[in-house]
Amino acid sequence: MTSPQQAMLSWRVVIPFLLTGTIWGSTWFVITGQISGVPAAWSVFYRFALATPALFLVALLMKRRLRLTAAEHRLAILVGIFQFSGNFLFVYHAELYVTSGIVAMMFGLLMVPNALLARFFLGERQQGTFWLGSAVAIVGVSLLLLHEWRANPDAGVIGGNVALGILLAMLGIVAASVANVIQANPVGRGVPMVSLLAWAMLYGTLFDLGFALATAGPPPVPTGTQYWTGIVYLALIGSVVTFPLHYNLVREIGAGRTAYNSILTISVAMLISTLFEDYRWTGLTIGGMVLAVIGMVLALRAKQAPKP
Q1: pTM
Q2: Which one, 71, 89, 189, 269, has least CB within 10 Å?
């Protein structure tokens, strides 16, 4: 029988692990090119309007059932609204005000609301080491946000750049966490993951369309090649390719070990932000990054407590 350590060294694990972490790390920066001169809501819609049919095609090629029951459709609607609408709409708008690498770092704390919601809805409990590591990670991310706050002259203004960006990112984290937890209920476990994601993405895309029409007016038609190249990358590589790889990792090595690719994602995002967004490292930000990574590792290494 293959041990978890041996499984982690398998090419079936290493290659998807590196691919998902690197691709997702790069998507945070690519998003910045989608919100320059184009309403963020329309960029979210364009991304998933392209990704949705591609994901249905993946489900067909994988021979997964696409016919869902009424209860499964209701779950897909909820996942779509929280994951492919709320989460991404908040993220895209957050990056109007906060460096992409910092938003990525904040999303590294997704495990905290995941644990809280899973405790409330699914009865899952975490040991003290998880909460200790989470506290350390929160302190680290707070130092990074403090640097952003100080670096932005409008930070102290109500509704100002950094404050609004942090709030939007936090709302995005909550939306993503809700989607993560509700799809783990008994109904969700009975649906092939790629099929649930395809339907959820379809419902989310329809909501994105309505939101964009209501808040941003008629759809713009950008003419820049770079914009549409970014849309294709985010839709096909950043969504359709990575989701099946990610959930296959969950199946191979478990959700806890798979979550370690968030460390790689954050590292790639911060590197790209340094190279292309002129992110400036200081003693405060270096210390914050170190604490955040140490805290995340501690939290991820904590074992789940048995259910009462």
Answers
A1: 0.85
A2: 189
pLDDT of residue 169: 93
210 to 104, 146, 161, 182: CA distances (angstroms) = 27, 36, 26, 24
Spatial CA neighbour of 284 closest among 104, 140, 106:
140
Distance in angstroms (rounded) separating the CA atoms of residues 295 and 44: 32
Closest CA to 161 of 282, 169, 29: 169
170-188 burial, b at 16+ Cβ within 10 Å, e below that, comes to ebbbbbbbbbbbbbbeebb
Buried b (16+ CB within 10 A) or exposed e, 266-301: bbbbbebbeeebebeeeeebeebbebbbebbebbbe
Distance between CA atoms of residues 107 and 116, nearest Å: 15
Instruction: Render pLDDT for 217-260 as a digit per residue (tens, 0 to 9).
Output: 999 999 889 999 999 999 999 989 987 888 777 667 655 566 77
Q: Three-state SS string across the chain, please? A: CCCHHHHHCCHHHHHHHHHHHHHHHHHHHHHHCCCCCCCHHHHHHHHHHHHHHHHHHHHHHCCCCCCCCHHHHHHHHHHHHHHHHHHHHHHHHHCCCCCHHHHHHHHHHHHHHHHHHHHHHCCCEECHHHHHHHHHHHHHHHHHHHHHHHHCCCCCCCCCHHHHHHHHHHHHHHHHHHHHHHCCCHHHHCCCHHHHHHHHHHHHHHHHHHHHHHHHCCCCCCCCHHHHHHHHHHHHHHHHHHHHHHHHHHHHHCHHHHCCHHHHHHHHHHHHHHHHCCCCCCHHHHHHHHHHHHHHHHHHHCCEECCC
